Amino acid sequence: MKLITHNMLTSNILKGVTKGYPLKIHPIKVENTTVDFNRDFIRRILQRIEYDTLRGAVIDLGLKETLPAVMSETMQQDEGFLIRIHKVLLEYEVKEGELVCPETGRKFPICQGIPNMLL
Amino acid sequence: MASKRPEHQGPPDIFYNEEEARKYSQNTHIIDVQTKLSERAIELLNLPDEESCLVLDIGCGSGLSGEVLTELGHQWFGLDISTAMLDVAQEREVEGELVLGDIGYGMPFRAGSFDGAISISALQWLCQADKSCHNPVKRLYKFFSTLYSCLARGARAVLQFYPETPTHVDMITQQAMKAGFTGGLVVDYPNSTRAKKMFLCLFAGGQVQQLPKGLTGEEGSEDVPTQARFDRERQRYKDLRGKSLKKSRTWILEKKDRWRNKGREVRPDSKYTARRRPKPF
Q: What distances in angstroms separate CA A14 from CA A102, A107, B93, one per listed residue?
């Protein structure tokens, strides 16, 4: 599971959960791969990313990359920033671990990189 | 006689075991059919050109449809209930992100996440109640309502499925409309039993969109005029029921041919054959 997936995933399929976002990550094994940089896609997806969730996930995973506290309009044009977002979003993959619902505390296991959202 | 439909043989998470899943990476016929369906579904999805979009693949299985998306330069998320199928997808090293989940419980995604959604031959599974707590109508409604919310405004969802009965089609479209979608059914090759394919083409809000037309297999061929042709000449019904008008030139030529075939003595055809004679006084 890449962080882009984590940014989109919620646990609102659980009964009684209204938001279920953001899910907390308990990583066990994290892998780093290289993915081709696609500038247009990153710029497009940046409009849709919850930036605070992404920062939280970076801290949860204990990554070396750091993201500035707030994202401003000018930074979205900055090539270096886009590459950093690309790295964080697409290059780190949680292979084993758990996702935890913030409201109920229910755990969703991640096995071989696939989050199990079955109830 | 036992039914051939896979939905009747068991729930999808059990039916698609290792053996069944392997077919989806080895059987070239299955791969071919799935790829063609995906191409058509993506065509109906009408994504903006030259842009990399985020697409949800519902019931992605081994990621055959996802590979088509990757080829077209889109990023995708795949959701499936079968672990064995997702394992095959990982073996094939598909580009998309895979999530294990039951679509009948809803989409576990945040609102407005995707630019579009496709689904190849998955929806019919929702019409079955595999557990006593399953209610197909409720599960379909849950599926469509959560799908609606996880799509961006104006995005499309194209869901190809094999309905078992016309009631299933009604049930599925009704629940989709109830969830707020507009759009409807697009049927390709409606007159063929085997080639007939149903696509539920849904629009999630946005401005009013025109429902695309289904293929008929006659694309590219010349348009057959539907109106009567205007003609100055008076039409004689020469070829009525395959026979020529009696005493006409063609009738005489045909008759001479028949006689010749019988071996009778016939004068050769010339430009004077069947010429009108002058009226006698």
A: 12, 11, 31
Q: How far apart are the first and last CA of chain B?
A: 83
Would you list the domain boundaries of chain A? 3-115
Give the nearest chain A residue to B53 (CA atoms). A41
Q: Which residues in chain B have Cβ-Cβ distances shorter than 8 Å to A119? A: 102, 105
- B82: its two tokens: 């079968």
What one-character-per-residue DSSP string does B111-155 give?
Answer: TT-EEEEEEES-GGGGGS--STT--HHHHHHHHHHHHHHHEEEEE
Predicted TM-score (pTM) of this structure: 0.80
**How do the pLDDT tens digits run along chain B, 281 residues long?**
446 788 888 888 888 888 888 888 788 888 899 999 999 999 888 888 778 899 999 999 888 999 999 998 899 999 999 999 999 999 888 989 999 999 999 999 999 999 999 999 999 998 888 888 888 999 999 999 999 999 999 899 999 999 888 899 999 999 999 999 998 899 988 888 888 899 999 999 877 778 888 888 776 555 555 666 666 666 555 555 667 788 888 889 999 988 888 877 889 999 999 888 888 87
Task: Identify the three-state secondary structure at position A77.
Answer: helix
Q: How far is B83 from chain A (nearest CA, A)?
A: 9
φ/ψ of B154, rounded to 5, equals: 80, 0
C-alpha span between A85 and A54 (Å, rounded): 9
Task: Give all domains of chain B, ordered by start, each with its CATH number.
Answer: 8-204 (3.40.50.150), 238-270 (no CATH)
Q: List the alpha helices (DSSP H) in chain A.
A: 3-8, 39-46, 51-61, 79-86
Please name the residues in contact with B14: beta carbons below 8 A apart, sequence gap of 6 or more.
Answer: none
Cα dihedral sign for B263, B268, B271, B275? negative
Complex ipTM value? 0.91
Neighbour count for residue B79 (Cβ, 10 Å) = 24
Q: Which residues on adjacent β-strands are paired with residue B188? A: B197
**CB contact (8 A) between residue B54 and residue A2:** no
- Is A48 touching B (CB cutoff 8 A)? yes
To the question of domain A3-115 being in CATH 2.20.25.10, the answer is yes
Residue tagged 């009013």 (tokens): B208
**Residue B97: half-sphere exposure toward Cβ, Cα within 13 Å:** 27
Residue B133 in tokens: 């707590």
- Which residues of B are less than 8 Å from A4 in CB distance? 97
Question: Residue A12 carries which DSSP code?
Answer: T
